[in-house]
Amino acid sequence: MRKLLIGCGYLGERVAKEWLRQGDEVWALTRSTANAERFASFGLKPVIGDVLDPESLRKLPAAETVVYAVGFDRASQTSKRTVYVDGLSNVLQQVGAMCERFLYVSSTSVYGQDAGERVDESSPTTPTEESGCICRDAEAVVRQAKSDANVLRLAGIYGPGRLLARVEQLRRGERLAGNPEAWLNLIHVDDAVRAVLAAETRGVPGATYLVCDDRPLRRREYYAELAKQAGATAPQFEELAADSAERRRLNKRCVNQRLRDELRVELQFPTVIEGLRSLPAATR
Which CATH number is associated with domain 2-155+188-212+253-267? Predict the structure, then answer.
């Protein structure tokens, strides 16, 4: 089968390699000739183009499955809204009618709850941050253009190469910003790949899936485990004023019941504790 990736980064490249292992023909859009050469070296069929250049998207092939996982390049001169909303609209206009499955990788930032509430796919999406508003608006673009698409709301992705900056900060004994009692919602990148592939084969047309592991944990617990794996001292956090907004902000707790029941995803790392312990190379 032919598959197409729009956004072949930390998550997308791993999805592409799984498709290749299944024997699929896999195409990937990239703006970089260097990335195009690297993709071709391990079997992908690259297309050089840009989601903001509709003319370049005419080279995209028809495919049974399209996964849209475009991240935001902070070094670019383009706004996040332009990339996430306008770029997505351009791609849908080009390939939406030519694919059987369209999977859009969104974010749990669409939820604005910040008092420790539990949220699932039925919870209201009333984000307070601009990035969450952009993701919510992008989801609306997907649903309007292709009503049978699946939206995957991913929690924070971690995995190899994603923890090094924090590890060094812990080893230097630096104080960490933010509320240590706030909740974190995470997913190991390998389990995120499992979720994408499960949605491709078992996703209910038009359904939204929240992709996170089994147990949210507080930032204090997360950094204590990370420090332990890195051989660093226990983490210290910056003092927060008793009446500060940051002290009151506890984030939300995401529930993955639909991921488990409907997509039947078996997580390799059901909590971040197991996930961190699987990453000795990132924390040595």
Answer: 3.40.50.720
